[in-house]
Amino acid sequence: MTIDHTEAEKRRYFRNLMLPEVGAAGQKRFQAAGAAVVGAGGIGSAALYYLAAAGVGRVAIIDGDAVELSNLQRQILHGVRDLGKPKADSAREALLALNPHLGVQALNVRVHKGNILEILHGYDIILDASDNFETRLLLGDYCWKARTPLVSAAAAGFHGLLLVMAPGPGNPCYRCLLPQPPAPAPEEGILGAVAGVMGCLQAVEALKLILGRKSELTRRLLAYDGLKGRFQSLARPQRPDCPLCGEKTQ
After folding, report:
1. What span, in angstroms and rounded, lies between the C-alpha atoms of 137 and 108?
2. CB 78 within 8 A of CB 41
3. What is the pLDDT of residues 44-85, one digit of tens each?
4. Closest Cα partner for 131 from 177, 75, 84?
5. Is residue 168, in this structure, part of any structural domain at all?
6. CATH number of residue 115's parent domain
7. Is 192 a member of any domain?
8. H helix or E strand, kind and range, residue 146
9. Are 235 and 163 in contact (CB under 8 A)?
10. Quick one: 97 exposed, middle or buried, by C-beta within 10 A (0-12, 13-18, 19+)?
11. Total domains present in the chain
């Protein structure tokens, strides 16, 4: 099948098209895909920027918060001019300034049980860049039941975690790692660049899945230590007694 790109698209995505793993067919997959990103903060800023730069055709930004001065240390989608503005709106403006050919939807809401189906239905992949465990588990449950891939990233201090949940036989769900939300912890500081690292890694995994490639992180957890400059890949097995994906639910 012959796939044609406009001359402007060929120039914009030239470095993508050069990659044998992407090429013209892969670029069309990017442009036909829909990705929903929950959270437009530090991690979400980097992930959203690179999804937009790659040419992912439909992007949803879901965030119910407004831009505050303390956000600007790490949330690079936003600037001083955006203070007080809903983060989803600010992020949408930044993405369209980078790539005006995208379809970007800004949703100034928090995801909860009552709206998650309406908000996330129809997207090919979900990126969890949220900042609380209740939302992470909710997204994990929804994606497992909807058979939608989830890429989840987290960061605090100098450390980050990344995983991919690909619903299917033998693959663990999010509750295999975290059955219930942990007890609330004191608010932590974070080096802004660490959030950026995790958001970039999150975008890489999402783009690979859009291309139809498998991720090594469907059964592993990637841990990043910014102080030591090290990555560690940890086994993430399926729990036979998991209430969501365990043996009794099959």
Report:
1. 20
2. no
3. 999 999 999 999 999 999 999 999 999 999 999 999 999 999
4. 75
5. yes
6. 3.40.50.720
7. yes
8. helix 133-146
9. no
10. exposed
11. 1
